[in-house]
């Protein structure tokens, strides 16, 4: 068994993916900016008798991404899977009140980071004769919502890229999938609002999805037989029917 690269593995969905793939014998290649978190995760998961390589990487920085890919030790090859998970939202203001630095942060990490690492990993997978790229999209890429403007646009971009990449790679035996969750309780809202109290309210009086629910499905997508390509999975909490309609707020 080869390795799985997980970007943004220091928390939430990325961390849960590291745990499930490690438990099932995959070696891990992890990145994120919070290296102390990666250290902690790596030391815990090494008990699963797998190898873990991790590197502090800012997925919004081109040079960092190049260095990350170049530094992957050769004994971590083959690279079976790339999980493009690192991403974030910042703010929830109408566009005219938006903060341009926030926009750049989202666009750079959520779109350009995915493009750059994918460009660098495809030649490795082509050489191997197989591989699987799994992108974290979002329900926000299917439906926009007020104040979601730039974040929604970045996830709509992931939806388009996933489809286009399938076409680009059709003769390569490299699979491309995306998973598009609704509300998942992670650090996502804390990062969006830079306010833990406000973030907590997002998940109050409703049962959201948890990072492990998403990691379970990603693991399922990755472990289908080679001739099966799951294109996209939309996954919602039972109590959420669309971005704005959920059991707590509907008809109030
Ligand atoms: P999270 O708990 O905040 O985790 C985000 C991860 O991405 C962290 O490990 C963070 O690591 C990393 N990251 C963010 N910016 C980065 C950068 N510039 N460079 C490197 N790593 C970066 O949130 P999450 O919910 O697990 O989010 C994971 C993915 O799922 C994102 O793409 C998000 O858009 C998507 N998603 C989330 C939800 C939801 O409701 N939570 C729904 C749909 C889709 P560092 O901060 O340590 O760098």
From TrEMBL:
GO terms for molecular function: oxidoreductase activity, acting on the CH-OH group of donors, NAD or NADP as acceptor. The keyword Oxidoreductase applies. It comes from the Bacteria. Signal peptide: none annotated. Keywords: Oxidoreductase. It holds the Pfam family adh_short. SUPFAM superfamilies: NAD(P)-binding Rossmann-fold domains (SSF51735). InterPro entries: NAD(P)-bd_dom_sf, Sc_DH/Rdtase_CS, SDR_fam. Belongs to the short-chain dehydrogenases/reductases (SDR) family. This is Short chain dehydrogenase. It comes from Desulfurella amilsii.
């Amino acid at each position: 068994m080869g390795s799985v690269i997980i970007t943004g593995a220091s928390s939430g969905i990325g961390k849960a993916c590291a745990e499930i793939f490690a438990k099932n014998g995959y070696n891990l290649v992890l990145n994120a900016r919070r290296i102390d978190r990666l250290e902690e995760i790596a030391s815990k998961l090494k008990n699963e008798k797998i190898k873990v390589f991790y590197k502090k990487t800012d997925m919004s920085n081109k040079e960092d991404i190049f260095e990350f890919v170049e530094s992957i030790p050769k004994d971590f090859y083959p690279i079976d899977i790339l999980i493009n998970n690192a991403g974030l939202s910042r703010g929830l203001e109408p566009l005219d009140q938006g903060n341009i630095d926030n926009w750049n942060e989202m666009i750079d990490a959520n779109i350009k980071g995915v493009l750059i690492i994918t460009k660098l990993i495809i030649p490795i997978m082509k050489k191997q004769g197989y591989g699987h790229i799994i992108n974290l999209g979002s329900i926000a890429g299917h439906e926009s919502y007020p104040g979601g403007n730039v974040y929604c646009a970045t996830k709509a971009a992931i939806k388009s890229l996933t489809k286009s990449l399938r076409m680009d790679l059709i003769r390569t035996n490299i699979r491309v999938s995306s998973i598009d969750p609704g509300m998942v309780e992670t650090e996502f809202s804390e990062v969006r609002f830079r306010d833990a109290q406000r973030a907590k309210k997002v998940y109050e009086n409703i049962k959201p999805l948890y990072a492990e629910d998403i990691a379970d499905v990603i693991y399922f997508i990755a472990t289908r037989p080679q001739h099966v390509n799951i294109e996209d999975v939309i996954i919602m909490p039972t109590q959420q029917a669309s971005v704005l309609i959920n059991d707590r707020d509907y008809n109030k």
